[in-house]
Amino acid sequence: MKNNSKNLNKKYILQIIEKYQTPLWIYDSNIIKDRILQLKKFDSIRFAQKACSNIHILKFMKENNVKVDAVSEGEIERAIYAGYNPEKDIVFTSDLFESNKLIKKIVSLNITVNIGSINMLEQLGKLSLGHKIWLRINPKFGYGHNEKTNTGGENSKHGIWNIQKSLYYIKKYKFKLVGIHMHIGSGINFNNLKKVCKKMIETIFNFKQKIKFISTGGGLSIPYKLNEKKFNVDNFFNIWDKTRKKISQYIGNPIKLEIEPGRFLVAESGILVSKVRSIKKMGKKKYTLVNVGFNELIRPVLYSSYHHISIIKRNKEKSKKMEKTIIGGPLCESGDIFTQTKKKMISHRLLPKLDIGDYVIFHDTGAYGASMSSNYNSRPLIPEILIENKKFRIIRKRQTFKEMLMLEKI
Ligand code: LLP
What we know:
The protein is α/β, with parallel strands linked by helices.
């Protein structure tokens, strides 16, 4: 068991399984709370809800004074349902408005927009003079734990390339500029953080517009492997704080610092609990197949991401023998393998010997787990359970087949 929480222990997990059966997601709110507190030096924390958008998680964030980012109309709906005030608490971040209907909704709710393209300025300005905006700048370089999560440079579609081009529209439509935002990718590297901060200073000095905020974006990493170090929040804050002070001096008014993490706030709070249903020998290789697939947890397949795996024996005995096994799911696709690495799709893990009926736990799946899951192979969405105040409760029901087929019954 990865020892990151008092609540995510064997006894508790078995109680939850007994009540709700496998497979399911479990989140521990104590861990989320702890991560929020670690960021308390920032003037504003905004949760990138794409990491875990369950409305009960959003409510928890709100209760703890965390604001929210929305990247789609659906995420706006979720934030409002969770009780967020659209005008004060929500920022819509995108590189496009998917429809005119969406722009009208944003205008009528007075939601601040974090603008990622010049077209957005024009489309928004025409409908809403003086709208509140941020500008999301692409600093022309980026970093990610995978090339798919690097959001800077010309291999990324994100952000405004040339900030000067926005000036014409800012004047024309009298936009109220709240701040400048720079999210360069998921998985911050301290080597290039100073470069990012330098770029932020340069951008604001050249742009010469009054602002109140700068946003660091998100991208804070977490230790997925047991031997990985924790993210150094203080170091991150100090580097940005110095940047803020320089900008503040130059502009002549105080600048507030906002941070916009997804993963850091929720990843370690979550586990995915599955059950062993089949054990097969294929030539020299051993496959242990569990009742979740990449339709539940796609990160290993999409980015070759590592998730720590621990086990709970069904009959509570301790398994002494260790063995190498490949862990896969039920999907009708050879790539439905959780233990793949960057180099090899069919790769194994060394785990205590598993038998049919044992439980396999995927750790640190609170971010980009449930929120990226799908109905592939017509598998219904699985329940989410939240542990709060030493009690657990269901925060998303298991989807029924009826619900899954409903939209197609025409
Ligand atoms: N702000 C913006 C504008 C973003 O695009 C993102 C993530 C974040 C904040 C939050 O990033 P975080 O703190 O979670 O790294 N599915 C991938 C991650 C994709 C992130 C997309 N944007 C994964 O599972 O690793």
